Amino acid sequence: MARSWGLPEEYGRIIRDHHRDDLSQGGTLINLVALSDKACRRLGLGIDSEPSLVLAVTDEAATLGAGDIVLAQLVALEDVQAECADPEGAAR
Question: Which of 6, 35, 64, 90 is the residue whose CA sits 20 to 30 A from 56?
Answer without folding.
Answer: 90
